[in-house]
Write the structure tokens for this entry.
Amino acid sequence: MTSLTIPAEWLIPHKFPNQWIFQCSISLRNLVLTNRAGQFFRQLVTFLEQVHQLIDYHLELQYNPQRNNELDVWICFGKPHRASKPTLTPVCISCELTHELSMTTLLSEQEYTRAWLDATARAMLILTPIRHVERLSELTDENGEMEAFWYDAIKLIDRECNQLEICYRAIVLNHGTYRNHSHLHLKIKVTDDTWNRIIAPRHREKIQKINQLLQKSSVIEDCFGPRYYKRLTKSKIPDEKLHSSNQDAKV
Ligand SMILES: [Zn+2]
């Protein structure tokens, strides 16, 4: 394929207080299928982190229905309640595959990535790099790791959502103090319909097992920092049916 370039206007943000929005005149899927996702996200993180020294931020990808479902990239930063780094936990559930929570949530492994159910059984799919990296900018271009990350995200969505066109609400990548885990997590927040009709029934046993594991204090202490602990103790109590509650984590 000839090398398609990234139009300069895709990298000029619309600026609002604590929020920048980048608009691409293409969908995420087509960005990936034209082999430009690696290039686009490299230029985006370079712009954010090197040109503007933005280190702590929430990156969110959305369809824009007013623009023919083309890609909007939201960058949110500067929120005071997101001032501290995630706590280091004894277990990185994205690296330590022998931990029972990791074994239960793992869906597949690719050359550079792993796909998972959410470790707290929220209505989302997770993609992580196999390497323990903390930022999108740490993925490498030379061996295709950055490109593969986005390609695998689209493949995961197609596989788990039965090729539905609109099956997720947002895709989130948190950086710096916006993270809950130190390991980079791509969170694909699927729609209620996709979750309840397709994903939850397919993985019913795994989701039940995750909810059982979350009752164990040793699992909570080993795998989650205080932010998770606060949310779990507030929202979970006593058991069951988390898969149907489909709560949306705020960040
Ligand atoms: Zn890790």
